[in-house]
Amino acid sequence: MTTSSKPLRWQLRRRPTGAIAHDDLELVEYASGALAPEHVRVRNIYLSLDPTQRIWMSEREQYLPPIAIGQAMRGTTLGEVVESRSERFKAGDLVLVGLAGWETVSDVPAQAVARVRRQPGVPLTAAMSVLGNTGLTAWAGMVKVGQVKAGDTVVVSAAAGAVGSVAGQIAKLRGARVVGIAGGEAKCRWLTGELGFDASIDYRNEDVGAALDRHCPNGIDLDFENVGGDIMNAVFERMNTFGRMVLCGLISGYQSEGPVAGPANFERILMQRLRIEGFIVIDHLPHAKEAFGELGAWVQQGRLHWRDHVVPGLENAVDAMQLLFSGRNEGKLLVGVSPEPA
Amino acid sequence: MTTSSKPLRWQLRRRPTGAIAHDDLELVEYASGALAPEHVRVRNIYLSLDPTQRIWMSEREQYLPPIAIGQAMRGTTLGEVVESRSERFKAGDLVLVGLAGWETVSDVPAQAVARVRRQPGVPLTAAMSVLGNTGLTAWAGMVKVGQVKAGDTVVVSAAAGAVGSVAGQIAKLRGARVVGIAGGEAKCRWLTGELGFDASIDYRNEDVGAALDRHCPNGIDLDFENVGGDIMNAVFERMNTFGRMVLCGLISGYQSEGPVAGPANFERILMQRLRIEGFIVIDHLPHAKEAFGELGAWVQQGRLHWRDHVVPGLENAVDAMQLLFSGRNEGKLLVGVSPEPA
Questions:
Q1: ipTM of the prediction
Q2: Are B63 and A249 within 8 A, CB to CB?
Q3: Packing angle between helix A288-300 and helix A162-173, nearest 10 degrees?
Q4: Distance between CA B309 and CA A341 in Å, rounded?
């Protein structure tokens, strides 16, 4: 855990080229002034690391403004209110800060903060993963955008990732047949074992196309796409008539500079009447109640599984971020910024 | 008009490479045998020529089986029943044959035939265009797939074509702002004149991207895509967040052999949460009643305009087909196979 007594935060020093270099960001002390009215001061406990943050570091076209050079890295945190100038919060409250920074302490408007409701028997980290934005992303993409239904053959790429693993289970729990694509034998075993996927494909050791032919002999109805590139194309080529391709992420392109290529044979969208649709979780916040109702019940019933991967110490955030792009994280990647309350 | 006394039909002799060559097809006499029970014999009056028929001539992946070498060319016709072995039809009835051939006489199951209901004051050809599959295609794509709404900025490519011209007017009649892309000054004048489009872009004489910037300063909400390639890409690059790209056709690729490329920067679908969806009119036959209710009323009110371009003589069908790919047809392209009933 970070031990500095002054607040610390990561700022963007320059835009990364390719993989994030350690000195593309710098960890700096900063002085927090007096807390403004209707604001709260939050001691951050966990920081969420997400592939999309690599996009924010770049100047490519994106859905939020790029982070400016010299600005604090943006990120979602879970923390404890240590000072409040809002009637809605008091010291000791646990809160989620949607657009905080990679920082030990965040001063934020009270209206930009949501109370964390802990579920009995569920670790606090779940509020950053299966019962947080990760779970909402998986649910919105699979249910609202993908409109998964019983009997569908569903493929999920990056299926052992934080979103993919939950997305695949949602499809299973709603009656679909689910094939997950992941990197490495251990991840694939986790998918077909604990998570109950019908099949898995290890893209590091298998020909993805041939494996899809084997595991999806009747084609693919729904693709929950996290990766893009060749893996996406192999799935696309096997989409059934009226198939749906939900774009949740295209991580294979986030560290490259040029435009991200689409499927090779675009005409299939017309011939097979496919639907390709991108989504971002922030568009689906109005569905949070419905999503967390369903996800929370499954968690309580022990039917929905997840992993949180906590890397302790804010100073390790940049190194931890690289785990996402090499596929070495195991489940939802968090930085442990400070201890949970006793 | 065709004058041979024996039935004639066009058969596929070999698959075209690039543009259709005259001898890729051959016009042959054939003997029709005795009419089978529950069948009708139809003297074809009009044959519909459609870009999609070029796809049927090829072996590329498609939504119906390719036409086999030596088989009659497939096409929709409007004709008069001359013999009936079905209680539902009698000689003299005017009918549409959805999957007939490029032929003077069609023997078809009665259940594959639909009665033509003429509208007062509307030419018979309209049943092959604005009040036929062309109109249904435009309506289904714009209303059901594209979900056009008042205030949308809509772009239609091949906007002076049979489908595009109706699609754009539907968008206008439902309160959208409509920009049409077409080839040549005369077509562009027709769009902004008689059809009431808000603006037109002559892709032969204008930089499409610059013209889109000028005519769609607030971006594009809905693209009704008939063309593909560079024109589609110019529209795609300007799609607004939550924009919809409806793929009705990709004619720019129909005469090439390789795969049809999609938009260059596929990642925009994710970042701007776009939806790209292909459709084929046959999937929307259940919407015919709703569509023709709306289209028929607009026609009666004089608010919906269209052009039928009749090339007389079945023997001219192959040459006529080439008009579609050079953009020289003016409105819905039909072959006049035999005279209308008096």
A1: 0.92
A2: no
A3: 80
A4: 78
Task: Test B61 with A269 for CB contact under 8 angstroms.
Answer: no
**Cβ B241–A266 below 8 Å, yes or no?**
no
How far apart are the C-alpha atoms of A203 and A184, rounded to whole Å?
7
Q: Is the Cβ of B149 closer than 8 Å to some Cβ of chain A?
A: no
A60 touches chain B (CB under 8 A): yes
| B221 and B152 together in one domain | yes
Residues B275, A275: C-beta atoms closer than 8 Å? yes
Count up the domains in chain A and report the number. Answer: 2
Tell me, what CATH number does A25's domain have?
3.90.180.10
Q: Which residue is listed with tokens 């019933």?
A: A301
B144 touches chain A (CB under 8 A): no
Whether residue B250 and residue A270 make contact (CB cut-off 8 A), yes or no, is yes
**Chain B residues close to A55, C-beta within 8 Å:** 271
What is the pTM for the complete model shown?
A: 0.93
A157 shares a domain with A245: yes
Mark whether A180 and A315 lie in a shared domain: no
Residue B265: CATH number of its domain? 3.40.50.720
Q: Do B228 and A266 touch (CB under 8 A)?
A: yes
Q: Do both A198 and A219 map to the same domain?
A: yes
Sequential pLDDT tens for chain B (342 residues) = 444 578 999 999 999 999 999 999 999 999 888 999 999 999 999 999 999 999 999 999 899 999 999 999 999 999 999 999 999 999 999 999 999 999 999 999 999 999 997 888 999 999 999 999 999 999 999 999 999 999 999 999 999 999 999 999 999 999 999 999 999 999 999 999 999 999 999 999 999 999 999 999 999 999 999 999 999 999 999 999 999 999 999 998 888 877 888 998 999 999 999 999 999 999 999 999 999 999 999 999 999 999 999 999 999 999 999 999 998 998 999 999 999 998
Contacts of A268 in chain B (CB under 8 A): 61
The chain A residue lying nearest B229, using CA atoms, is A266
Whether residue A322 is contained in a domain is answered as yes
DSSP string, A180-240: EEESSHHHHHHHHTTT--SEEEETTTS-HHHHHHHH-TT-EEEEEESS-HHHHHHHHTTEE
Assess whether A274 and A314 both reside in one domain. Answer: no
Q: Report how far apart, in Å, the C-alpha atoms of A177 and of each of A35, A153, A304 are.
A: 52, 5, 16
Tell me: do A88 and A195 sit in the same domain.
no
Chosen from B59, B230, B267 to mutate, greatest number of chain A CBs within 10 A = B267
Q: Is residue B302 part of a domain?
A: no
Q: Which domain holds residue A160?
A: 133-284+292-297
CB within 8 Å: B280 and A265: no
- Residue B341, domain member (yes or no): no
Sequence length of chain B is 342
Nearest CB neighbour to A260, from listed B247, B261, B265: B265
Are A137 and A275 found together in one domain?
yes
- Evaluate whether residue A251 is within a structural domain: yes
Chain B positions touching A275 (Cβ under 8 A) are: 275-278
Find out whether B224 and B168 touch, Cβ atoms under 8 Å. Answer: yes
Pair B175, B216 in one domain: yes
